[in-house]
Write the C-alpha cells for this entry.
Amino acid sequence: MLAQNARRCLIRKRISVGGAPRTKPFLDGSYLHPSKSQPPLSFQFSTSNNPTIAFFSAQSQAKDGIKSRISSFFFPGNDDEISNPRLYRYLKLETFSEKELGAVFDRIRQQDELEDGPGDEPRTSDAIDLPMIATFFSKRLTELEDESDDVYDYDKDVQTMRQDFCNLESKRIWESIAKDAQTIKAANGGSSLQPVISNNAAITTSADALTDIFVSKQEFIEVLRNKASSVDLKRTWPITSSMILIGASVGVITPAMPFVVEQMGLNASEYGLIVSAFGLARMLGNVPSAVAIEKWGRRPFMIHSLSLIALGVGGIGWASTFEELYLCRLMTGVGVSLLGGAATLMVTDISTPLNRASTMAPVMSGFTAGTALGPAMGGVMVDSIGLAPTFYLVGASYLGVAAVNRAVLSETQRRPMKFAWRKKPTEPVANADDTLSGAVQNAVGQWAPLLKQRSVQSIMVMNASYWLALAGAQMTIMPLILTDQAGLNLSATELGQVYMGMSLIQIVGNPVFAKFIDKIGKAPAIVTGCTLISLPMAAMPLCQDWMQLAGVCGLWACGSSMMSTAPLAYMSDKVAESERAQSIALLRTCGDMGFLVGASAIGALADWAGSLDHGMQTSAGLLLTATAWFGARQLIFVQPDTSRNPKGEKIDDNTKSP
C-alpha cells in the first residue's frame, strides 16, 4: 500500500501545479509550443491569472479570427475547457449506452490496477481519480497516434513533449468530468452520489482541489450521458444561422414558380419535369458529393456550393424556354446536393445518438424560419418588381450567404489527430482512394453491405415514398390547386402566406417534436409524421375556404416537422461512423429517386386524368400505404434492446435479409 500511495503521489505531483506543461492543444488538433521567453507556466485553469492560458487563447483567437470572436460573444466561457467531441474521442465513445460507459470506466480502473506493484494492496472502492485518468490517457494516446500515417520526429524532444501533452489533456478530461460530478452531488444534496473520498463538499473548480476528488461509476455514467444528451449550441448556431439565410432565399422563389409556369405556358406534365430536374441532379450528384465532402471536408462545400445555386436560381429569371429552365434547375440541384450533404454531415459530426434529433432540430428550424420569411417576401417582390428581377435578386443573395458562411463556419470533420512530436513520412503511403475514381468505387462498394441490413432497407423505401408524395403533391400539385382560378385562386402574396404559415408551425414544432423523437424512438416518429402528412394531403382538394385550408396545412406542417429530422437520425444511429457519409448519401439518393419519379409521374397523372385532385389524392394513398408497410416491418423484424439503449430504442433482431 505504501508503494501504491507513493506512486500515486508522484503522478499527482507530475500533473499538478509543479509539473508545468510545454504544449497546448488547439481545437483543430494541432499543438504549439511557447517560446522560452514566456513567463513560467501554471496548471491553474482560471483564465484571469494564468499566463499560459491567456497566451494560447490569444493564439487560438488569432488562428480562428472572426469565428472565435463571434462565438465568444454569444457563448462566453472558458476557451481552455475541453470540447465535448474531443472528450468523447479521448474516451472512445460511440453509442453512449450505460453498458459502453461502464466498460470505459472499468478500463480506466483496470489501467490503474495494472500499474500496481506486486506488494500493493488491491483497491476495493468503485471510483476513479486524476492519476487513473492520466494512466488511461497515456495508453489511449498511443491509439490516437496510430490512427494516422505520421511518424515520430526524433529531431525534437519527443518524450518530454508527449508527456507534457498527456499531463495537460488528462487534467482537462478530469476537470470536465469532476466539475459536472460535483454539480450532480450538489443537486442531489450530496447523498445519493456521494464520492468515496472528497475534501470539498461544495462545487470546486481549482486544479488543486480536483486532484483530490474521486468519481464513482454511477457519477461517471450520469455525467457523460448528460453531456451527450444536451445540444452543443456553441457549435450548432453557425450552421443554424446559415440555414436561416438559405431558407429565406429558397422561400422567396416558392410563390414565384407557378407564375413562371403560367408565363411560359407549361402544362402540369411539363411543370412536373421541371420540378423533377432538381431531383435528377441531386440523385446523380449524391455519390460524387459525398466523396468530395469526405475528401476535402464539410466547410468548403458550405461555401462554394452556394455559387452554383446562385447561378441556377438567377438563371431562371433569364430563361425563356423549357430547355433553359430545365438546365437552371439541374444546376440548382447539383449545388443543393453539395450543400445538403455538407450541412447534414456537419450536424451528425457534432451530435450523439442521445441528442441527434435535438441537434438537428435547431438547424431544421433555422431553415424553416427562413422559408417562413421567404414566401411572404417573394410574393410581395413578384407583385411589385416582377418575376425576372426577383430571381436575379435571390441569386445574388446566395453569394451573400456564402460570404457569411466563410466568416462563421468551422470545419467539423473528424480526421486523424496531428501532434507536434510527429511528422509526415518521407515516402507517402499509397492509397487507392486518393483518386476520385477510386474513391467513388469505394463509396459505391459500401452500399451493397448497407443494403443487406433490414433497417436500412426499410428507411430507404420509406424515404423514397415520402419524397415521391412530397414532390408530387406539395411541390407540383399543391401550388397549382391553390392558384387555380376555378378553386381558391390565390395570388402570389396569398400563396406565400400559406407557405409561411406552414413554416411557422414547423419552427415551433421542430424542437418539441425533436425531443419527442429522441424519447420514443425514430421509427414511431416516422410512422406518426407520415400519417399526419398523408391524411391532410388527401383532404386538401376538398378545402373550400381559408379556415379549412388552415386546418389541413397545420396538420401537414406537424408531420413535416417530424420528418425533417427522424429519417436522418434513424439512419445515423443504425450505421458505424465510418459508413455514415455513404449511408446518408444512399438515403438522399433514394429520396431523390422518389422526388424524380413523384414530380414527373404525378404531374403526368394529373394531365391524363384531367384533374389536379386525382394527383393529390394518389400521392396521399401511396404515402399512407408505405407508412403502413414500414410500421408493420418494424413490429415484425425488430425487438427492444435495452442493453444498448436504455431508452428502449428498437433495433434489428437480424440485420440481414433472408
Summary: The mean pLDDT is 75. Strands lie at 24-25, 31-32, 127-128, 151-152, 215-216, 422-423, 638-640, 650-652.
